[in-house]
Structure formats: structure tokens, C-alpha cells
Amino acid sequence: MQKPVPHMVFPNLPRDRRPYDLNHYQALRQWAEAVTHQSQFQGTGETLPAGAMLTVSHAIHHVSGSGTITSLEGPPDTQGDVTLIADGPFSIGTGGNVTGGPLVATVGRAYRLTFDGQVWALHAAP
Q: Which helix (H) or strand (E) holds 98?
């Protein structure tokens, strides 16, 4: 599993700084905050049993069983993609925060969903 990037700490600029220095300092700080903010999933997590609500914590999860998934939940402030690999013929249903269903998963296939902060969008299977 990948390790998160540690948070960067920046020293304060001296009071006699030039505007040029301040602009570069602010740009560097914004970039550092963007790359260290852990809003994206990383690595492979444990196998999850199919059910109405799946709690995802990694970029990839195997899903076992034949239950129907209608909602996914991730860590706070999460946005990005998660891939569910079917170890069982689970279903993607309607009525929760997952769009793109209904679908019955084929064992051995991977299904990618993207979270925009509100809903998980199931990408069309190839």
C-alpha cells in the first residue's frame, strides 16, 4: 500500500519580503497543500461483503457475495475513483448515492466508480 505524503510545514517569510517572493511563496504553498491533501484513495483494501452500503477506504476493493449495493461511503472530503472487483455476482441498484445501475456484476470483472463529493457514478462496463 502507498504511504500518504507527509504534511509540509513552511516557515514564515520575513517582514521585508518582496512582492515577487510572496507570490512564489503562496504558489508553492498552494501546490504543496494540493499534493499533500489526502482526498484520493490509495492501494488495495480488504474484501467487502456486498450489501446496501459499502464503506470504501482504498482505491481497489474486492466485493464478495450477491447482495445489492445502492450506496457507497468513503472517508470525509473524499473525491476520486474506486474500483470494485467482483468475487461474487453482486448487483448495483438504485435508490442510494450510486448512479448508473441497475447492473449485475460478472465475477472476475472490475467496475470503476467516480465520486464527485455527492454521488458515485458507475462507468459503463467495457
A: strand 98-99
Whole-angstrom distance, CA of residue 92 vs CA of residue 72? 11
What is the C-alpha to C-alpha distance for residues 1 and 87, in angstroms, rounded to an integer? 21
Are 54 and 73 in contact by the 8 Å Cβ rule? The answer is yes
Give 3-63 as a DSSP string.
PPPPPP--PPPPTT--HHHHHHHHHHHHHHHHHH---S--SB---EE-SSEEE--SSEEEE
Q: Which of 88, 84, 95, 68 is nearest to 122 (CA)?
A: 84
For residue 89, CA distances in Å to 14, 27, 31, 55, 108 come to 61, 48, 42, 18, 9
* The three grid cell numbers given for residue 75, joined into one nine-digit string: 472517508
21-79 confidence digits (pLDDT tens): 777 777 777 776 665 554 566 788 999 999 999 999 888 999 999 999 999 998 877 77
What residues have CB less than 8 Å from 69, skipping those under 6 apart? 50, 51, 52, 53, 54, 63, 84, 90, 91, 92, 93, 96, 98
